[in-house]
Automatic annotation (TrEMBL):
Location of the Activator of Hsp90 ATPase homologue 1/2-like C-terminal domain: 13-122
Family of the protein in this entry: Belongs to the AHA1 family.
Protein name, UniProt field: Activator of Hsp90 ATPase homologue 1/2-like C-terminal domain-containing protein
A family per Pfam: AHSA1
Length: 141
């Protein structure tokens, strides 16, 4: 199955865009895209291969929703994703940070890894533009 792809441009360097994505995900991630929006207390990405991607819930504590598969500060982060899916059949989120000659960074986003084992969950991810817009607003002017 085709990846879900989106691109956006943010007015900061690739390192700043990467740091906001990885270090500040708990500040820009929208609580509506968690199991319990009222209980959402934050999210995190451990910036190393094998590191956890997780959310923090008031009742459940830390809930893992993926593992970092590749990471290069200012360039790329790739992680598995089980948020809203069967944990036995994760998909994959890939975010590339591309410097622009005129300044700023192009974010090349792909939610991929869809196959027969997880295709039934793909329809849940039509709101990526809203999530990415929230990220862009967080790093914007």
């Amino acid at each position: 199955m085709e990846p879900i792809r989106h691109q956006l441009v943010v007015p900061c360097t690739p390192v700043e865009a990467f740091d906001a994505w990885v270090e500040d995900i708990g500040q820009w991630w929208h609580p509506d895209y968690t199991p319990d929006p009222a209980g959402f207390r934050g999210a995190g990405i451990e910036a190393r291969v094998g590191g956890r991607v997780y959310l923090v819930d008031a009742t459940l504590g830390e809930v893992e929703w993926g593992r970092v598969l590749a990471i290069a500060r200012g360039a790329l982060v790739v992680h598995s994703s089980t948020l809203g899916q069967d944990p036995a059949h994760p998909s994959r989120v890939s975010v590339q940070f591309v410097p622009l000659d005129e300044g700023g960074t192009r974010i090349e986003f792909a939610h991929e890894g869809w196959d027969e084992s997880n295709a039934q969950f793909r329809h849940k991810f039509t709101d990526w533009p809203l999530i990415l817009a929230r990220y862009a607003q967080f790093v914007g002017p």
